[in-house]
Amino acid sequence: MIQQSSIDALRRIEIPPQSLFIGGRWQPAETEEAVDCISPIDGRHLTTIARASRADVDRAVQSARLAFEAGRWSRMAPAGRKKVLLRIAEIIEARALELAVLGVRDNGTEIGMALRAEPGSAAATFRYYGEAIDKIYGEIAPTGPSVLGLVHREAVGVVGAIVPWNMPLMIGAWKLAPALAMGNSLVLKPAEAASLTLLKLAEICAEAGLPEGVLNVVTGSGSVVGEAIGMHMDVDVLAFTGSNGVGRRLLEYSARSNLKRVYLELGGKSPNVIFADAPDLAKAAAVAANGIFRNSGQVCVAGSRLLVQRGVHDEMVGRISAHATAMKVGDPLSLETDIGAVSSERQLESNLDYVKRAEGDGGRRVVGGERILQETGGYYMRPAVFDAITPDMTLAREEVFGPLLAVIPFEDEADAIRIANSTEYGLAAAVWTSDLSTAHRMVRAIQAGIVHVNTYGGSDLTVPLGGHKQSGNGHDKSLHALEKYTSLKTAWFQL
Asked: H/E element holding 353?
């Protein structure tokens, strides 16, 4: 069992200024400029990360290309790559608390969630794809007797991976592990606001035996580093998780450069649909509260729209409001905390602006929605429940990425489907019902990459995560993720 004293000891460790990881070595940025890391826990300066230039990105891409062409990793037998990935998983597990505390200091996620979702998930991801490496086969085509058709799966080359600040280690592993499993080299750009755990992961990968140059980590701004990766003529595939606006720019960069393949996992405005015949309304309320309020709502698949059938609407609003009020917001490094800090002052201000807009549109604030704990210097917000929301309101249409829940009543199944699909997004959803036929019809009708039934969240690595509509086109997790990082080559033999 994790002791609070162990967490407190790790929170006091000073973090030295961070460098770029290129070609297996720590290197300063070309300009020697740095970005301040401010902890959302208390608003204090934590450390600095290097502010990379376009020239730094070019060095990183060249390093990745040289490593790929040299074949130390790309042509290593699958069993050899498997050993390295499994060793990475072992080291992550051994350092799980260290990694979790480091990440919490950087982005404010409550420690209980961080332990499971960051090092816990990252270790499982590297292990999953490590075990998969030597179980992926090519194909023999069903040709006539005078021809042999073979389909080879090959590594694509250099992968650019750009990951967000909310769960950097987990999402970073979702990109890195399958790309490495197939023999690719990578240039990874963490978010400016949360780079520390991914820089530590680079150190772990080197310790585990990953050859020099196979993984390069370049920190800095999206407008410089992200654009340079997206525009680079020697990056073959781009994998991104983040906002729709940035996703559109990455597609433009591909069109303006070498037409690199671009896989996007973008935003969501996910409907959590509760029918009157839900098997357990108390459980539905508790799960729905966790589904939107944990990590201060900073989760792409957060159930930010609660669609409730009118017969149980008032009861559900009361239940979930009680959960919102009871959840303890505070120091994310305390084991007693339910909800940690908002990741930055800028994000907190955006959340508070959405509260004003929701009230201005006619929504009724039931509980929460105010900044709290200002005396700490950190960025904290009381989770908010808004009722009387209609599908055309801003709170029902735009991704807030904060602890704001929009409650929308519906009449019947057709009405629920109409409202659920009334946004540009299609990432996740949930349906609560005791009727198996209703559940199947709703799963088919809702436009989303994943539809939960009588739960919300919790899907593991065996199934893909990806979106429909403007929630993106890329799938993380499962064996399907390997497809993003491979090219098919046909060999056609005349016998």
From this structure: helix 345-360
In this predicted model, what pLDDT tens digit does every residue of 36-66 receive, in sequence order?
Answer: 999 999 999 999 999 999 999 999 999 999 9
Domains parsed from the chain with CATH numbers: 4-266 (3.40.605.10), 271-469 (3.40.309.10)
Which residues form the catalytic set?
Answer: 265, 300
The pLDDT confidence band at residue 305, using thresholds 50, 70 and 90, is very high
Q: Give the amino acid at 272.
A: N
> For residues 93 and 119, what is the distance between their CA atoms, to the nearest angstrom?
7
Give 107-154 as a DSSP string.
H---HHHHHIIIIIHHHHHHHHHHHHGGG---EE----TTEEEEEEEE
Can you read off the two tokens belonging to residue 210?
Answer: 């990953």
Q: Which amino acid is at 6?
A: S
Q: What is the distance between the alpha carbons of residues 184 and 90, in angstroms, rounded to a whole number? A: 21
Within 8 A by CB and 6+ apart from 436, the residues are none
Q: Residue 256 in 3-state DSSP?
A: helix
Residue type, 17: P
Give me the phi and psi of 335, to 5 degrees please.
-65, -15
DSSP state of 329: B
CA 193 to chain centre: 14
pTM of the predicted model over 0.90: yes
d(CA 459, CA 347): 27
Predicted confidence (pLDDT) at residue 440 exceeds the cutoff of 90: yes
Supply angle C-alpha 199, 202, 203, rounded to 5: 95
